[in-house]
Design a protein that fits this description.
Oxidized Rhodanese, domain 1; alpha/beta; two-stranded antiparallel sheet; five-stranded parallel sheet; 6 helices
Length: 124
């Protein structure tokens, strides 16, 4: 997908302010049974098609509105992902501005997760 220059600048700025993690980091944490919120911030139709096993959906379009209801404790660990790591970086930046202190964006997003052969879920 070709992104517009303005969007890419916005993402670049956000990525300077947020923590990023790899798909391997996230998978290892899940395998160890670490407790964290694993959120897919893609659009509803993207999540409905398939998503990383164990992820919950909270789309980027509503995350700022709904996050405090879903995760009221701003100290809890939150890992966000999207298609490639751009929207999740923007969402992580917004959550940090809202006071969430342990939020990160999964670099490479669901594409990197799929390429690594990690488990996926899809509707029955």
């Amino acid at each position: 997908m070709k992104h517009s220059p303005g969007f890419l600048r916005l993402v670049e700025q956000a990525k300077r302010r947020v923590k990023e993690c790899t798909v391997a980091d996230v998978k290892a944490g899940l395998d160890r049974g670490e407790q964290f919120h694993f959120l897919d911030v893609r659009e509803d139709h993207e999540f409905a098609k398939d998503h990383a096993r164990g992820a919950r959906h909270l789309g980027k379009g509503v995350i700022e509105r709904d996050i405090e209801t879903v995760i009221p404790d701003k100290q809890e660990k939150v890992v966000l992902y999207c298609g490639g790591g751009f929207r999740s970086a923007l969402a992580a930046d917004a959550l940090q501005q809202m006071g969430y202190v342990n939020v990160s964006s999964m670099d490479g997003g669901i594409r990197a997760w799929r390429e690594a052969g990690y488990p996926m879920e899809s509707p029955a």
